[in-house]
Write a structure and sequence with these properties.
Elements: H1 10-22, H2 49-57, H3 60-63, H4 67-86, E1 90-101, H5 102-107, E2 114-121, E3 127-131, H6 133-143, H7 161-182, E4 189-196, E5 210-220, E6 223-233, H8 234-237, H9 241-254, H10 257-266, E7 272-275, H11 283-287, E8 305-309, E9 312-322, E10 325-333
Antiparallel strand pairs: 1-5, 2-3, 2-4, 3-6, 5-6, 7-8, 8-9, 9-10
Length: 345
C-alpha cells in the first residue's frame, strides 16, 4: 500500500513559500528518500453537544424572554421600599437568572438564613424569597436600633423564632412590590404564607421540578450587605410566555409617553404677571397704610415691565392698550435686558 502523504496546513504552506522566497529552501534538489519529519499534533478536546445545550438551557432569561425586565423593575421597587422602611440608603441589584431543580435550589441555600413562602393568585405553586444570613442580620440590627456606624454582622447560627417574626414585616413588603412589578404582564395577589429557617419543611413543588432562581445583591450605603434569592417554578410562569414576549412591544410603546406628555404640557394653563416694580415693606409699615397713602415703587415708566410666568421672570414688555383693554408688548427676554423694538402683543 502506498503511504499517504500528509496534507499541509495553510500556515505551513505560507511558511514554506516564505522560506523558498528567502532562499532557505532549494527547489532544485529534492531528497525523496528522506523521511518526512513527524508533525506535531494540534491539541484538541472533546465537545459534548448535549452539555453545550445544557449550559445554554441553564439561563432563565432564555427560558422565559423579558423576565429580566420584570425582575429589574421589582429590584428598583424593593430598593425604594427598603430605603423608606429602614430609613437607610439601600440598593437592590439583580445578578443573574438560572434554572435548576427545586431540590438543588434548596441545597444551594446551605440551610442558612430565612425563606418566605408565598402564594401567587391566580398562578399555581407559589414562590420563595430567601434572605441569606448576612442580609437577615443586617436588617435585624437596623430594626433593633443599631447605629449607622456599625458594620453588619453575619452570625454563624440559625435565626431564632423572634428574629423570624421580626423579618416577616420586610417579607410582607415583598408582596406589594412583586405584584406591582408583575402588573404589566398579569394582575396577581401575592400573600406571605409562612417564614421558615428549617428548609426541610419547605415544599411548593416536587423535588425534580424545574425552577428559576434569581439572585439579588443587597447593598447598604454602597456596601454589599447580603443576598436575596427568588425561586419560582417554571410551570408557574410558563402559561404567561406569550405575554412576556409581548412585553418588549409594550416597553417600546411606552417611549411614546414622552411625546404625549410634551403635547399635554403645551396645553397647560399658566399664570403670567406683568410686574412694574417691587417694594420692600415691614409688617409695621403695611399695617400703618391708610386710604390715600402713596407707595413709591421706584419704577421708571420708560423702562420695560417684567413678565413673570409662574413667578419666574421670563420676558420684558411695554405696557399699553389694545381694543380698549390693557395689554403688554413683549420686547425681549430677561436674558436681554434691553429687549428689542419688535415683538408680539
Amino acid at each position: 500500500m502506498t503511504p499517504v502523504e500528509p496534507i499541509l496546513t495553510k500556515q505551513e504552506i505560507a511558511e514554506l513559500l516564505a522560506a523558498i522566497r528567502a532562499g532557505r529552501i532549494s527547489t532544485d534538489l529534492i531528497d525523496t528518500d528522506r523521511p518526512w519529519p513527524p508533525r506535531q499534533a494540534t491539541p484538541a478536546s472533546n465537545l459534548d453537544l448535549f452539555k453545550v445545550y445544557e449550559r445554554f438551557r441553564t439561563s432563565g432569561e432564555l427560558r422565559l424572554p423579558n423576565l429580566d425586565i420584570i425582575l429589574d423593575s421589582f429590584a428598583r421597587k424593593f430598593s425604594t421600599c427598603l430605603t423608606n422602611v429602614m430609613l437607610r440608603n439601600f440598593g437592590v441589584e439583580r445578578e443573574d437568572i438560572a434554572t435548576t431543580d427545586f431540590q438543588q435550589s434548596l441545597l444551594d441555600l446551605n440551610s442558612q438564613g430565612a425563606v418566605g413562602i408565598y402564594s401567587i393568585s391566580p398562578l399555581k405553586y407559589g414562590c420563595l424569597f430567601h434572605f441569606d444570613t448576612l442580609m437577615a442580620f443586617t436588617l435585624l440590627e437596623i430594626m433593633l436600633g443599631s447605629s449607622q456606624s456599625n458594620e453588619p454582622l453575619a452570625l454563624n447560627r440559625n435565626l431564632t423564632t423572634i428574629e423570624i417574626s421580626l423579618l416577616k414585616s420586610v417579607m410582607d413588603d415583598i408582596c406589594t412590590e412583586l405584584a406591582n412589578a408583575m402588573r404589566p404582564v398579569i394582575d396577581i395577589r401575592v400573600l406571605l404564607s409562612k417564614v421558615e429557617n428549617n428548609f426541610r419543611l419547605v415544599s411548593i413543588v416536587e423535588p425534580d421540578t424545574e425552577v428559576l432562581v434569581t439572585r439579588f445583591n443587597i447593598r447598604l450605603a454602597g456596601e454589599l450587605c447580603g443576598q436575596m434569592r427568588f425561586i419560582i417554578p417554571y410551570l408557574t410562569l410558563e402559561p404567561l410566555r406569550e405575554k412576556f414576549k409581548a412585553l418588549a412591544t409594550i416597553t417600546q410603546g411606552a417611549n411614546t409617553w414622552t411625546d404625549q406628555i410634551v403635547q399635554e404640557t403645551m396645553e397647560m394653563e399658566t399664570l403670567a404677571v406683568a410686574r412694574s416694580g417691587l417694594v420692600d415693606m415691614t409688617i409695621r409699615e403695611i399695617l400703618a397704610l391708610q386710604p390715600g397713602d402713596i407707595v413709591d415703587l421706584q419704577y421708571n415708566p420708560d423702562q420695560p415691565l417684567t413678565i413673570l410666568v409662574e413667578d419666574q421672570p421670563l420676558f420684558q414688555a411695554i405696557a399699553g392698550e389694545r381694543n380698549g383693554k390693557k395689554a403688554f408688548h413683549v420686547t425681549g427676554t430677561t436674558i436681554n435686558r434691553l429687549g428689542g423694538i419688535h415683538g408680539n402683543t
